[in-house]
Design brief:
The protein is α/β, with parallel strands linked by helices and about 525 residues long. Helix content is about 40%, strand content about 15%. It folds into three domains: about 220 residues, DHBP synthase (Alpha-Beta Complex), CATH 3.90.870; about 100 residues, Rossmann fold; about 190 residues, 3-Layer(aba) Sandwich (Rossmann fold), CATH 3.40.50. An eleven-stranded mixed sheet has the order 1-8-2-3-7-4-6-5-9-10-11, with helices on both faces. A five-stranded parallel sheet has the order 14-13-15-12-16, with helices on both faces. The longest helix is centred in the last third of the chain and has 28 residues. The chain binds threonylcarbamoyladenylate and magnesium ion (MG). The site of magnesium ion has 3 residues, from loops.
């Protein structure tokens, strides 16, 4: 097939090309189009025969559904059987942009698009050429990334040409893709919104609109035998170059040591370290996750061009947009890791469940304990800026006459209702988290195992720093008794504090391990089991 090429870097300058591409799409052809995430392989979403051509061009498994791209929010109502207000709030905040929303589908969506599921994934891209082409076509466009299935997604026109020249009707040049990783995929077709694929719209941003969002286990972990993928795309080998990549868990020094042991290997490292390695491809700056998303796929293709066979990669920070970088890199590496740092275990759970008792068990076995409450006390020492901000917010009564914090008074006010608790968190969390992050990274880089006792581990996104998370829980009455004894509070005050926390299900859904602590000998036994399973 003779593939036509169009320059749509500035679509307004080339209306004839836009119209021609629209006509090709209406005629049932497949066209590669630029988006702000990666290039897409587009066809009329209502035309099953046209959509079949996408699968043929990519060599994509038939059960892997496609995202439908629209140019107006209104089109969502043509595609989705139910449009909850949550979807409209997300659209208002993030569309046009790199967010895909999954909703129950209407019958007009062919099975070829939905992969036989009863849902449809919809997104409204912000790239000017993408919206111009969708409008010119006059129909929503189904489009996966424009790579051969299993290869890294294309983020430059030449990547698309490499993979698709001769296989499709046309390719549109839209320049280098702004974000460089595919959109965030979120399903609203589950009781709690669930992040299926991380992207440039972060979990934290989604939570600011939706409240709770779950991160699907497949985001950072390989599927185990018997597990089904919430998103069919998660089960396939992905983003992989021909080279064999291994991610080095550890800091720059640990990475340098691994490279030393493998003089012929390629380094997939950050810009800052490129002078250190003879064979080296970079993927952005260590401190700038957006530069990493922008560069990663191009770097993976570059490794192949340079003939790399064995590659060691730096492990990016998983926080914020970094989660998307980790997700793609780990998949490209087939979840192959070398561990050159200490293991990090995070412990969380509701008040009175026994977090500190369990932390102590780990500490007794050589884990370095990081205690969020202790750090919270340190950052609210007399005269600290955090303490001042708390007094401004909750009243000078939270200070004792000598200028130190009256913790009981603060607790009484801050746990009064969820709005007050949020105020407390917004002031203290950033400072606490920064300290926890530094301490855990420093110790683990030295090869020391770390146990973190962090009541708000998941709420603050600290769980992504952990190799394992443990939720410790106990019966309601057991916790009540413990708190009476420990804090000397009235039952009413304790109940209030408990009610302000998340439910058991919230913790359980997010943790690697769950420990039930009604009894000390049971606790010991469960602890030994966890220790055994993480040291495998
Ligand atoms: O940024 C992007 O999203 C790019 C550009 C071209 O828009 N597109 C893209 O499409 O990455 P694709 O097909 O490479 O990835 C779509 C992902 C796959 O993992 C697929 O399994 C998942 O979204 N997906 C699509 N529809 C779904 C559905 N109804 N339920 C669950 N997962 C779905
Ligand atoms: Mg893809």
């Amino acid at each position: 097939m003779n593939t036509e090429f169009f320059d749509l870097r500035d679509p307004q300058q080339n209306p004839a090309a836009v119209q021609r591409v629209g006509a090709l799409l209406r005629a049932g052809e497949v066209v590669a189009i630029p988006t702000e995430t990666v290039y897409g392989l587009a066809a009329n979403a209502y035309d099953a025969a046209a959509v079949e051509k996408i699968f043929a061009a990519k060599g994509r498994p038939q059960d892997n559904p496609l995202i439908v791209h629209i140019a107006y929010v209104q089109e969502l109502f043509d595609l989705a059987a139910v449009v909850p207000t949550a979807a409209l709030r997300l659209a208002e905040r993030f569309w046009p942009g790199p967010l895909t929303i999954i909703l129950p589908k209407k019958d007009c969506i062919p099975d070829a698009v939905s992969g036989g599921l009863d849902t449809v994934a919809v997104r409204m891209p912000s790239h000017k050429a993408a919206s111009a082409v969708i409008r010119a076509a006059g129909v929503p466009l189904a489009a996966p990334s424009a790579n051969i299935s299993g290869f890294p997604s294309p983020t430059e026109m030449r990547h698309v040409a490499d993979d698709m020249d001769g296989r499709i009707a046309a390719v549109c040049d839209g320049g280098s893709c702004e974000f460089g990783v595919e959109s965030t995929v979120l399903t609203l077709a589950t009781p709690v919104p669930r992040l299926l694929r991380p992207g440039a719209v972060t979990k934290e941003q989604l939570e600011s609109v939706l409240g709770e969002v779950l991160v699907d286990n497949a985001v950072l972990h390989p599927l185990t035998a018997g597990q089904t993928a919430a998103s069919p795309g998660m089960k396939y080998r992905h983003y992989a170059p021909k080279a064999e990549i291994t991610v080095v868990r550890g800091d720059a020094k640990a990475f340098a040591a691994v490279m030393n042991e493998h003089p012929d290997a390629f380094a997939l490292c950050f810009e800052e370290d490129k002078h250190l390695y003879k064979n080296c491809v970079t993927f952005g700056s260590e401190s700038d996750p957006f530069s990493q998303t922008h560069r990663l796929f191009d770097a993976l293709r570059e490794l192949d061009e340079q003939g790399a066979e064995t590659v060691f990669a730096r492990d990016p920070s998983p926080e914020g947009v970094g989660l998307a970088v980790c997700n793609r890199l780990y998949r490209a590496a087939g979840f192959r890791f070398i561990n050159r740092r200490g293991t990090i275990v995070g412990i969380t759970g509701t008040t009175g469940a026994g977090k500190s008792t369990l932390t102590k068990l780990f500490a007794d076995r050589g884990f370095f304990p990081v205690d969020a409450d202790k750090i919270a006390r340190e950052i609210t020492e007399k005269g600290s800026p955090v303490l001042q901000e708390l007094a401004d917010t909750f009243g000078a009564e939270i200070l004792l006459p000598d200028g130190t914090l009256n913790r009981k008074e603060l607790a009484a006010r801050a746990f009064a209702d969820s709005e007050q608790t949020k105020k407390l968190n917004d002031i203290t969390h950033p400072a606490i988290l920064q300290k926890i992050r530094l301490l855990a990274n420093e110790k683990s880089s030295d090869g020391v195992h770390v146990v973190m006792d962090v009541p708000l581990l998941f709420e603050c996104g600290m769980d992504v720093l952990c190799d394992y998370t443990v939720h410790i829980t106990a019966d309601h009455d057991t916790r009540l008794k413990r708190l009476r004894k420990r804090d000397g509070l009235s039952d009413e005050a304790i109940e209030k504090r408990m009610a302000a926390q998340h439910t058991e299900e919230y913790f359980t859904a997010r943790s690697t391990f769950v420990v039930v602590n009604n009894d000390a000998s049971d606790l010991n036994e469960q602890f030994e089991e966890i220790l055994h399973s993480i040291s495998q």
